[in-house]
């Protein structure tokens, strides 16, 4: 299982430090999303990079629609990778859906993680009573319909919105990795993410967390970062980035790097 999973998910270990740092990408990207961040951590860390099974860089034959119906199977993948690599303790940086995967993994194996750094994290994207996740059910259904009817056109509209900042290179890069995904897998994963609700388990987290939130994120309102700070069970702080968009590692890496360094200290 170990070696084949490492191959399937394109696992790489780079860098020469003593400590282990895991970088886990979000929906619509792959491990290449970290390429502007990576050089700054190679001296001090052994960095583990991998692709989520839904990424366009992974052979789509490996995506099991029966298995990946919720985030637990992604958590299995992460824990199996770390086990296969013999990692006993690591710091974890997770973007978007991977922030939630990291939270669930830390609940299952708290001793494995020294710290969780959560970029653009949301335990639930849908509004619910007093909870403001950012989206109404009808809005999300419209998104799914758009993805289904014309994926290419949806990507062209969504990528600039998600990047948020006026950084054409980041929009091009995010569009590239979105187009790499098979449209049916992309839609399936979107449904999985938008139907997730991790609010009930946040209190089970014991690992220190650092929530990184940009000034304006089309996917995650600032109120969600405040909610995480209140409800995560471990010591938690929120760092507001002076930049916009859901993908600061693509659009503003030089704003993000010093924050990651500080968080990892």
From TrEMBL:
Which InterPro entries does the entry link to?
A: AB_hydrolase_1, AB_hydrolase_fold
Annotated ranges, domain AB hydrolase-1: 21-255
Q: Which gene carries the instructions for this protein? A: DAD2
Q: Spell out the family assignment given in the record's similarity comment.
A: Belongs to the AB hydrolase superfamily.
This protein's UniProt keywords? Hydrolase
Q: What is this protein called?
A: Strigolactone esterase DAD2
Q: Name one GO molecular function term.
A: hydrolase activity
Q: Which PANTHER family match?
A: ESTERASE-RELATED (PTHR43039)
């Amino acid at each position: 299982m170990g070696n084949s999973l490492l191959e399937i998910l394109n696992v790489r270990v780079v860098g020469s430090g003593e400590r282990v740092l895991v970088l886990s990408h979000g929906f619509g990207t792959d491990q290449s999303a970290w390429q502007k961040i990576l050089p700054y951590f190679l001296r001090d860390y052994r960095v583990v990079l991998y692709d989520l099974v839904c990424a366009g860089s992974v052979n789509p034959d490996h995506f099991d629609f029966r298995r990946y119906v919720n985030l637990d199977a992604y958590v299995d993948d992460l824990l199996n990778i770390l086990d296969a690599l013999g990692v006993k303790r690591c710091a974890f940086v997770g973007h978007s859906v991977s922030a939630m995967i990291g939270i669930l993994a830390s609940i299952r194996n708290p001793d494995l993680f020294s710290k969780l750094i959560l970029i653009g994290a949301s335990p639930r994207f849908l509004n619910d009573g007093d909870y403001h996740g950012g989206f109404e059910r009808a809005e999300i259904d419209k998104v799914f319909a758009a993805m289904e009817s014309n994926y290419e056109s949806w990507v062209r509209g969504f990528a600039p919105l998600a990047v948020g900042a006026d950084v054409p290179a980041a929009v091009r890069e995010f569009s590239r990795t979105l187009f790499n995904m098979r449209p049916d897998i992309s839609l399936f994963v979107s449904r999985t993410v938008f139907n997730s609700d991790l609010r009930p388990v946040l209190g089970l987290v014991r690992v220190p967390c650092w929530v990184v939130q940009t000034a304006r994120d089309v996917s995650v309102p600032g109120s969600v970062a405040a909610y995480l700070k209140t409800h995560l069970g471990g010591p938690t702080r929120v760092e507001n980035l002076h930049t916009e968009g859901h993908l600061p590692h693509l659009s503003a890496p030089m704003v993000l790097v010093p924050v990651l360094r500080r968080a990892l200290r």
